[in-house]
Structures are given as C-alpha cells and as structure tokens.
Amino acid sequence: MSGEGCPCGSGKGFDLCCEPYLAGKALPETAEALMRSRYSAYVRQLIPYLKETLWPRDAPVAAARGSICAVNLILPERPCPKPQRP
User: Fold this and answer.
1) Which range marks the domain in which residue 29 is found?
2) Which is higher by pLDDT, 85 or 50?
3) I want to staple 43 with a disulfide (CB 3.0 to 4.6 A). Which of 2, 3, 7, 25 is the partner?
C-alpha cells in the first residue's frame, strides 16, 4: 500500500500513518493519532479495530456495518485548549 495517501488527511502515506495501528503493529501515542486511526478504520470499514479501541467494550459498532459513510476529517490548525482541573 506504499504511496497511498492516508484517509485521515494527515498528508502522509497510509503505510507511514494509520496502517501500523490498524494492522495491530503499533499503538497510537496521542489522542490525535487515535482519532485519526479510528477515522481511517471507519473509511476502510475495519469494524474490529473500532470495537477494540472504543469504550465501552460493548459499544454497538457492529450494527453500523454497511451504513458508515465517511466524508472528511477536519482538525483545527491550532491545538485545542487544555482542560483546567479544579
């Protein structure tokens, strides 16, 4: 799959971006990487990956098979503010 753009929109090749996560060869190290990998899983209809990475474990993801339509993933250019703890 070398040279194929990643569905998450990172601008990287799929093999260097989300493929290692979806193939179970690596774990996303940031929340953004996890979100991007989940988006790529939706695009590719990889329901087992979604079930494995969503909480709670019994999330009704399998029922969505065949009805998922991913159009685009847009992330803000600047980081979101960190939540303040009381």
Assistant:
1) 1-73
2) 50
3) 7
